[in-house]
Design a protein that fits this description.
The protein is mainly alpha-helical. It has three helices and no strands. The chain has one domain. 77% of the residues lie in helices and 0% in strands.
């Protein structure tokens, strides 16, 4: 990105000799200098290019977390069923048939 000093030097050179056309590098720098908020636009463009990769990483982490929480919930339900079966065995004296969560 051209600095203000570079832009003024190019414009001064163009004013001092208007019959000589600017080179491609000078035209390119003037074009870049004429774009408002160029640095912010370039950062936004870079972010949009990387967004898919960032989204994939975040999605994988949240998916892994939800799977882990579901497995913990299943373990909790399994423990509650063991406790219920033990209480029924002690209270009633017979084994109560309940659903066993085997996975």
């Amino acid at each position: 990105m051209p600095t203000e000093e570079e832009k003024t030097q190019i414009l001064d050179a163009q004013m001092s000799s208007p019959d000589i056309p600017l080179g491609s590098a000078e035209n390119f720098l003037l074009t870049l200098g004429s774009i408002s908020d160029l640095e912010q636009r370039l950062r936004l463009w870079a972010f949009t290019l990387e967004y898919d990769a960032i989204e994939a990483v975040c999605t994988d982490k949240s998916y892994s977390t939800s799977v882990a929480l579901f497995v913990l919930w299943l373990q909790f339900v399994r423990i509650k069923m063991y406790i219920l079966n033990t209480v029924c065995l002690v209270q009633v004296g017979c084994l109560v048939l309940i659903y066993w969560l085997n996975y």
